[in-house]
Amino acid sequence: EIVMTQSPATLSVSPGESATLSCRASQSVNRKVAWYQQKPGQAPRRLIYGASTRATGIPARFSASGSGTEFTLTISSLQSEDFAVYYCQQYNDWPHFTFGPGTKVDMK
Amino acid sequence: QLLLQASGPGLVRPSETLSLTCAVSGDFISSNDYYWAWIRQPPGKGLEWIGSVYHAGDTYYNSSLKSRVALSVDTSKKQFSLRLSSVTAADTAVYYCARHGTIWYYFGMDVWGQGATVTVSS
Asked: What would the pLDDT profile of A48-65 be if each residue is shown by its tens digit?
């Protein structure tokens, strides 16, 4: 099983600042990584697939990069609605998907 | 617009079988481009993929749950289902249904249901 890890567990950021979240895979997953945002009491929402492609309707302040085992999600100029938990997911081992443990972005 | 609606008992006794159904709006369930998945989230924890089912009946399961899980699809009723046997307190979670693409057409899990909370307790 491909294990996904994320760091940091919690990131405290002020509105208007940028946040950089990291995700690492236990083996190469090429560029087959998706990112999701989850707010309390809600289902996850797809943000990114293919390591760097924004899903339809996702604001441009969300950007992502990476390949192999190292991936990054950057949120520039954080808005109040961006405070949430973010999960990365690998699908290189389709459909045996695995998710990272999540990074919580909270307000400083 | 595709909508998914998970439903089922909110309380299941230990050692019994958890059964959930996800209703799929429209005629999407028979699409050749998508699979239908279950993902769960224990309280305060992360996401765990349980398994995926295709409209033709193909299934894939998380190896850690494979001995206890069965997914099925009923295209005439526009729904797919999850059965998890011999449940314990560790199976207490919010259970989400979601859609995802095939191996050649995967763009993440793009549509999610609202989640069904299941508590395992006597």
From this structure: 999 999 999 999 999 999
